[in-house]
Amino acid sequence: MTRFLLIVDYNGGAIETPMTEWAPEDVKAHMDYYEKLNAELRESGELIGGEALTGPELAKSVTSDGVSAPVITDGPFLESKELLAGFQVIDVESEERAIEIAALVSQVPGPGGVPTQQPIGVRRVMEEADYQELNPLG
Fold first, then answer.
1. Shortest CA distance to 77 belongs to which of 47, 103, 99, 55?
2. H or E stretch at 97
3. Using CA atoms, how far apart are residues 21 and 47, in angstroms rounded to an integer?
4. Are 71 and 82 in contact (CB under 8 A)?
5. Cα–Cα distance measured from residue 64 to residue 73, given in angstroms and rounded to the nearest whole number
6. Which of 1, 12, 117, 122 is the most exposed place for a label (fewest CB within 10 A)?
7. Residue 128: phi, psi to the nearest 5?
Protein backbone atom coordinates (compact mmCIF):
# COMPACT_ATOMS: atom_id res chain seq x y z
CA MET A 1 0.00 0.00 0.00
CA THR A 2 1.14 3.53 -0.76
CA ARG A 3 0.09 6.70 0.99
CA PHE A 4 -0.91 9.82 -0.93
CA LEU A 5 -1.89 13.31 0.13
CA LEU A 6 -4.87 14.75 -1.74
CA ILE A 7 -4.66 18.53 -1.65
CA VAL A 8 -7.74 20.71 -1.88
CA ASP A 9 -6.92 24.38 -2.32
CA TYR A 10 -8.98 27.49 -2.89
CA ASN A 11 -8.95 27.12 -6.68
CA GLY A 12 -12.69 27.01 -7.37
CA GLY A 13 -12.42 24.96 -10.55
CA ALA A 14 -15.49 25.59 -12.70
CA ILE A 15 -17.19 27.56 -9.91
CA GLU A 16 -16.14 31.20 -9.57
CA THR A 17 -18.50 32.12 -6.73
CA PRO A 18 -16.80 31.75 -3.32
CA MET A 19 -18.48 29.27 -0.98
CA THR A 20 -19.22 32.13 1.43
CA GLU A 21 -21.73 33.38 -1.17
CA TRP A 22 -23.43 30.01 -1.89
CA ALA A 23 -26.97 29.23 -0.79
CA PRO A 24 -27.04 27.30 2.51
CA GLU A 25 -28.48 24.20 0.81
CA ASP A 26 -25.57 24.19 -1.67
CA VAL A 27 -23.02 24.38 1.15
CA LYS A 28 -24.84 21.52 2.89
CA ALA A 29 -24.84 19.37 -0.27
CA HIS A 30 -21.13 20.11 -0.74
CA MET A 31 -20.25 19.09 2.81
CA ASP A 32 -22.59 16.07 2.75
CA TYR A 33 -20.81 14.82 -0.38
CA TYR A 34 -17.44 14.99 1.40
CA GLU A 35 -18.90 13.29 4.47
CA LYS A 36 -20.34 10.41 2.40
CA LEU A 37 -17.16 10.00 0.32
CA ASN A 38 -14.98 10.01 3.43
CA ALA A 39 -17.24 7.42 5.12
CA GLU A 40 -16.93 5.15 2.07
CA LEU A 41 -13.14 5.55 2.02
CA ARG A 42 -12.90 4.86 5.77
CA GLU A 43 -15.03 1.74 5.33
CA SER A 44 -12.76 0.49 2.51
CA GLY A 45 -9.72 1.18 4.73
CA GLU A 46 -8.30 3.70 2.25
CA LEU A 47 -8.78 6.93 4.23
CA ILE A 48 -6.18 7.55 6.91
CA GLY A 49 -7.37 11.06 7.74
CA GLY A 50 -8.20 14.48 6.46
CA GLU A 51 -9.63 17.78 7.48
CA ALA A 52 -11.14 20.97 6.15
CA LEU A 53 -9.14 24.01 7.26
CA THR A 54 -10.16 27.49 8.33
CA GLY A 55 -9.70 30.28 5.80
CA PRO A 56 -6.30 31.75 5.01
CA GLU A 57 -7.27 34.97 6.79
CA LEU A 58 -6.75 33.04 10.06
CA ALA A 59 -3.41 31.50 9.08
CA LYS A 60 -0.01 32.38 10.52
CA SER A 61 3.42 31.91 8.98
CA VAL A 62 6.26 31.04 11.36
CA THR A 63 9.99 31.16 10.64
CA SER A 64 12.77 30.39 13.07
CA ASP A 65 16.56 30.23 13.06
CA GLY A 66 16.55 28.10 16.21
CA VAL A 67 18.31 30.82 18.19
CA SER A 68 16.09 33.89 18.41
CA ALA A 69 12.37 34.05 18.98
CA PRO A 70 10.28 32.82 16.04
CA VAL A 71 8.98 35.44 13.62
CA ILE A 72 5.21 35.16 13.26
CA THR A 73 3.33 36.90 10.46
CA ASP A 74 -0.17 36.73 9.10
CA GLY A 75 -0.32 34.57 6.03
CA PRO A 76 -0.19 32.91 3.65
CA PHE A 77 -0.91 35.71 1.24
CA LEU A 78 -2.87 35.70 -2.00
CA GLU A 79 0.41 35.56 -3.91
CA SER A 80 0.84 31.99 -2.66
CA LYS A 81 0.35 29.36 -5.33
CA GLU A 82 -1.52 27.02 -2.98
CA LEU A 83 -3.90 28.24 -0.33
CA LEU A 84 -4.76 24.97 1.37
CA ALA A 85 -8.47 24.51 2.09
CA GLY A 86 -8.30 20.90 3.22
CA PHE A 87 -6.63 17.55 2.69
CA GLN A 88 -7.06 13.80 2.81
CA VAL A 89 -4.39 11.20 3.43
CA ILE A 90 -5.18 7.92 1.72
CA ASP A 91 -3.46 4.52 1.68
CA VAL A 92 -4.13 2.77 -1.61
CA GLU A 93 -2.80 0.01 -3.84
CA SER A 94 -1.62 2.30 -6.63
CA GLU A 95 -1.27 5.81 -7.97
CA GLU A 96 -4.13 4.99 -10.33
CA ARG A 97 -6.43 4.42 -7.35
CA ALA A 98 -5.26 7.69 -5.77
CA ILE A 99 -6.16 9.47 -9.01
CA GLU A 100 -9.60 7.78 -9.05
CA ILE A 101 -10.26 9.08 -5.54
CA ALA A 102 -8.97 12.56 -6.46
CA ALA A 103 -11.45 12.57 -9.36
CA LEU A 104 -14.26 11.79 -6.90
CA VAL A 105 -13.13 14.69 -4.72
CA SER A 106 -13.04 16.98 -7.77
CA GLN A 107 -16.69 16.11 -8.48
CA VAL A 108 -17.91 17.63 -5.19
CA PRO A 109 -21.06 19.63 -5.95
CA GLY A 110 -21.11 23.40 -6.01
CA PRO A 111 -24.06 25.77 -6.47
CA GLY A 112 -27.04 24.07 -8.05
CA GLY A 113 -25.35 20.67 -7.68
CA VAL A 114 -22.92 21.36 -10.52
CA PRO A 115 -19.59 19.52 -9.96
CA THR A 116 -16.90 22.02 -9.03
CA GLN A 117 -14.22 20.33 -11.15
CA GLN A 118 -11.81 21.68 -8.57
CA PRO A 119 -8.20 20.64 -9.28
CA ILE A 120 -7.03 18.18 -6.61
CA GLY A 121 -3.30 17.81 -6.00
CA VAL A 122 -2.04 14.24 -5.63
CA ARG A 123 1.29 13.80 -3.84
CA ARG A 124 2.84 10.50 -2.79
CA VAL A 125 4.08 10.42 0.79
CA MET A 126 7.81 9.69 0.93
CA GLU A 127 8.80 6.19 1.96
CA GLU A 128 12.07 4.78 3.31
CA ALA A 129 13.37 4.09 -0.22
CA ASP A 130 12.87 7.75 -1.13
CA TYR A 131 15.00 8.84 1.83
CA GLN A 132 17.72 6.38 0.84
CA GLU A 133 17.75 7.79 -2.69
CA LEU A 134 18.25 11.27 -1.26
CA ASN A 135 21.00 10.14 1.10
CA PRO A 136 22.60 6.90 -0.13
CA LEU A 137 25.24 7.05 2.65
CA GLY A 138 22.73 7.44 5.48
1. 55
2. helix 95-106
3. 30
4. no
5. 12
6. 1
7. -50, -45
Walk along the chain (138 residues) in steps of 10 and give the mean pLDDT of each run: 93 89 96 96 97 86 93 73 86 97 96 95 90 75
The pTM assigned to this predicted structure is: 0.85
Short-list 93, 107, 105, CA closest to 7: 105
Q: Could you say which DSSP state residue 20 is in?
A: G
Residue 121, C-beta contacts closer than 8 angstroms, at least 6 positions apart: 5, 6, 7, 8, 9, 82
The residues near 89 (Cβ < 8 Å, ≥ 6 apart) are 3, 4, 5, 6, 47, 48, 49, 50, 125
Q: How far apart, in whole angstroms, are the C-alpha atoms of residue 82 and residue 20?
A: 19
| Predicted local confidence at residue 129, as pLDDT | 81
Tell me the three-class secondary structure of 22-74, residue by residue: CCHHHHHHHHHHHHHHHHHHHHCCCEEEEEECCCHHHCEEEECCCCCCCEEEE
Contacts of residues 17-22 at CB distance under 8 Å and 24 or more positions apart, as own/partner, are 17/110, 17/111, 22/110, 22/111
Residue type at 113 in one-letter notation: G
Who's near 61: CB < 8 A, 6+ residues apart?
72, 73, 74, 75, 76
